[in-house]
Amino acid sequence: MSNYEPKAEHKFTFGLWTVGNVGRDPFGAPTRATLAPHELVYLLGEVGAYGVNFHDNDLIPIDATTAERDQILKDFKKALADTGLKVPMATTNLFYDPAFKDGAFTSNDPRVRAYALQKTMNAIDLGAEFGAEIYVFWGGREGTESDATKDPIESIKRSREAMNFLCEYVQDKGYGMKFALEAKPNEPRGDIYNSTTGHMLAFIETLDHPEMVGVNPEVAHEHMAGLNFTHGVAQAMEAGKLFHIDLNDQAFGRYDQDFRFGMVNLKSAFFLVKLLEDNKYDGNRHYDAHAFRTEDYEGVKDFARGCMRTYLILKEKAEQFNQDAEIQALLAEINADDGAMDAYKGAYSADKAAALKAVDFDRAALGARGMKYERLDQLTVELLLGVR
């Protein structure tokens, strides 16, 4: 892989809200002009993306007239046809409008909860119109600043009721969509319910249709909580629940920075890419990030190209790791198994348990063994630094 150019087979996607970010932050006004959705599609086509994803209101403003909606859809469909971009995923904005200031599905106001369902059904229809197969739910306002304000158990029940309702809606319509739940610990709420991927995996198993629902873990959201993102993704993969993934970067413990993929934690990004590629993840590699506020739209293109290029470089590094004779020999030594413990592996039996309890282990020898992890990690670093 010499030029690291993205191809359709890599399934690199961006949200309209990512390349369409205008550089606004809580302390400063926008630094880039707003581009229409169809203009953003052409931008993504220019940089070589596979697909574009959207919140309902990224595409259709919440207060658009019927005529405005029709024109936006016409322009968007033409841009998709001209560029060949797909729409693999869609989602609903249930966090921006003041109506959702206390949450959507967990709001204490039953009218807000009903409106959230209505808005989501309409948005699912819109996603289905463009062939989206994954529908993501991020509950950005589903939480509290003070636990005096909401009963957390009642909020779990409200969330479950909403997800069950919407699963039934998709089945009734015959859309064939799957849902992916996205966790975040905080921001914009003080504390957000189902705050990590592990929380989401547990919640999914309580639903009426758990087979329809997986997760959409995001690098930045897990790093905000100081967690190892690769481990969370591995848990989701092992459970068969990695339906979608959001790639970006983030300094641990900071606010949600949404940096270009691989910008901050390059080693973490490497192990994530290696996990996805080694296990033949076939889903979309979606970038939920945005360019620095300092950039114009040429800089936005640099940002988008950089996200994809870094992934492809790390993919090549993962292949190099798997083929490096010294690294692989060291891994073989570390994981050596002489078969002496084979009799105790696998499922439980009373005889096996009794036999294992009778084994005389040399505890001192077990503790004295050097694992050679320092050497292995240094070889990994040298590989990433390009000196191997």
Overall description:
- This protein has about 400 residues and is α/β, with parallel strands linked by helices.
- It has two domains: about 10-320, TIM Barrel (Alpha-Beta Barrel); about 325-385, no CATH class.
- The chain is about 45% helix and about 10% strand.
- It has 15 helices and ten strands.
- It has helices at about 15-20, 35-45, 55-60, 65-85, 110-130, 150-175, 195-205, 220-225, 230-240, 265-280, 295-325, 325-335, 350-355, 365-370, 375-385; strands at about 10-15, 50-55, 90, 135-140, 145, 180, 190, 215, 245, 285.
- The strands form two sheets. The protein has an eight-stranded parallel beta sheet with strand order 8-6-4-3-2-1-10-9.
- Strand 9 (about 245), helix 10 and strand 10 form a beta-alpha-beta unit.
- Helix 5 runs parallel beside helix 6.
- It starts with 11 loop residues before the first strand and ends with a helix.
- The mean pLDDT is about 95.
